[in-house]
Amino acid sequence: MGDESTYLAAGEIAAAVRGGERSAVEVVEEHLAVIAGREPEVHAFNAVGDAQARMAAELIDRRVAAGEDPGPLAGVPVALKDNLCTAGVPTTCSSRILEGWLPPYDATVVTRLGLAGAIAMGKTNLDEFAMGSSTENSAFGPTRNPHDLTRVPGGSSGGSAAAVAAGFAPLALGSDTGGSIRQPAALCGVVGVKPTYGRVSRYGLIAFASSLDQIGPLAPTVADAALLLEVIAGHDPLDSTSIPEPSPSLVAGLDAGVEGLRIGVVAELMGEGVAPDVRRRVEAAAEVLAGAGAKVEEAEVPAVAYGLSAYYLIAPAEASSNLARYDGVRYGLRVDAPTTATMNVATRTAGFGAEVKRRIMLGTYALSAGYYDAYYGKAQQVRTLIVRDFAAAYESFDLLVSPTSPTTAFPLGAKAADPLTMYLSDVCTIPSNLAGDPAVSVPFGVGDDGLPVGVQILAPALAEATMLQAAAVLEDAMAGEAGTP
Amino acid sequence: MAERITRDDVAHVAGLARLELTDEELERFTVQLAAVLDHAADVEALDTAGVAPTAHPLPLVNVLRDDVVRPGLDRDVVLAAAPSVEDDRFRVPPVLGEPS
């Protein structure tokens, strides 16, 4: 973890820059210095946008000098997952098939960050097209966990989580299709939020599985994650699946506590497959919440046991359709061949990595004639059962709690040869994506190996405010304890 | 249990997905895809008779906007990203020709 001087909270940086006490240029230079020191060993970024960041910071300082208010994130560096479109700045999805591509427009979240005065620091590494749980599936090499360079940072937003954990940027954006914000946040010891589906515009997020994908914040603290979520949330006419609700107020009520809330520990996500040290941390979190006045009991959400199976049919099916667009015609890689059909095959074969090919084929198979009803159709019915079981649980509980990841960060290469073992990393996070509900991973101490453990708090749709209040209670409980990352 | 997915199935699916696999990849993917589909067997066993499918988590339907003309992407910017261009259009190799 970065030292204290580089670890200033985003809210404090913005307040100091808006008040003219610190310059945005100074803030950017400090973070670039931290990046220069550790990025060679961590490899959080596909590209550090140092020149653009300096220019943007100078502009912020000029606006402050002219008496303007640049916004709630004035001068705050933000690292962007490299599947978020940035106009004229390479956006690769960590794939050879998009290497060198310059998007013609900004993602809505990128536009909103700019309007809030934030500084884009660069594009962070990910598993190719966000398909993976370790960031080892990047065409540009893996990212390493800043807490232990022999371990993975999780994935697919591993670069964004590592960037925050290493102090390269006080804030980062990731995307979460089956846990891709929360699982790396847990493994890197930072806060990661998957908002309600539709809460944040997906316009300009390169699609993986459109009914599951959602953009969200990663930050060292719950308050900073809430601040970033306030900035990026809210209706966007450019995304037809965007919820027509105003951006929620999250920071203001963050210290409301959990007094009187009913909180359930999800029994199905506490069983075998969850490492004993991780389970003990979740049990300790439940005690903290009870001690803070919540009524904590065991909750049953039976259908979540089928989440992983349903997800690994639905997500690849949607991916196989979404990734059909990479055909070598309009943008990205083209491998020349005598006919268009052979060019399509040559381009896709050279441009996609093994995991992307596996998922495209799995999805194509699940959608193909003769198998559609047995696989894709069945998985969609199971999705309904998961939605129903969550709805039933939320009749008795305001919030639910579980581990974020069944284990702490695992060594590089440990699961690379066996896709199914890797997929099991997401067993606790997937159900929220299938239901469309929000969830947050908050750091809550360390496992037996001394590496960070994340506790997941799940909430019904649009209940981000209550969810983050509970996360803040856990954060406060850890603040005084020694030896935590 | 019968084989979950055969090497021929995988080769067929690769063709549908416009991917070409080496013999080694065909072997490996057949084993790996079978493992994932075996894991999914637990959903096959579930009784879901009468359960409606969920394709999407939101109840939003027919999202419309006002019918107002507005500019799209700049053609030159879009074409600048294309691998090959001719006369302001995307250029591709012959569509007809040797069978693929």
Report the span from N to C terminus of chain B: 35 Å
The secondary-structure element order of chain A is HHEHEHEHEHEEHEHEHHHHEHHEEH
Structural class of chain A: alpha/beta
Low-confidence stretches of chain A are 1-6
Structural class of chain B: mainly alpha
- Largest interface, Cβ cutoff 8 Å: A-B, 72 and 55 residues
Q: CATH top level of the domain at 7-44 in chain B?
A: Mainly Alpha
Radius of gyration of chain A: 21 Å
Name of the top-level CATH class of chain A: Alpha Beta
CATH architecture level-2 label of chain A = Alpha-Beta Complex
Portion of residues within helices of chain B? 25-40%
- Subunit organisation of the chains: heterodimer
**What is the CATH-assigned architecture of the domain at 7-44 in chain B?**
Orthogonal Bundle
Rg of Cα set of chain B: 23 Å
What portion of residues of chain A belong to β-strands?
A: 5-15%
Please characterize this protein's 3D structure.
The complex is a heterodimer of chains A (485) and B (100). In chain A, helix 8 (276-291) links the parallel strand 7 (262-266) and strand 8. Chain A is α/β, with parallel strands linked by helices and 485 residues long. In chain A, helix 9 (307-322) crosses helix 11. The radius of gyration of chain A is 21 Å and the shape is globular. Chain A has 15 helices and eleven strands. Chain A starts with 9 loop residues before the first helix and ends in a 6-residue tail after the last helix. In chain A, strands 1-3-2-4-6-5-10-11-9-7-8 form an eleven-stranded mixed β-sheet, with helices on both faces. Chain A has one domain: Amidase signature (AS) enzymes (Alpha-Beta Complex), CATH 3.90.1300.10. Residues 1-6 of chain A have low confidence and may be disordered. Chain B has a domain at 7-44: Histone, subunit A (Orthogonal Bundle). Chain B has a two-stranded antiparallel ribbon. The radius of gyration of chain B is 23 Å and the shape is flat. The longest helix of chain B is centred in the first third of the chain and has 17 residues, at 23-39. Chain B has helices spanning 7-16, 23-39, 41-44, 75-80; strands at residues 85-86, 89-90. By secondary structure, chain B is mainly alpha-helical. At the A-B interface, helix 9, helix 10, helix 11, helix 12 and helix 13 of A face helix 1, helix 2, helix 3 and helix 4 of B.
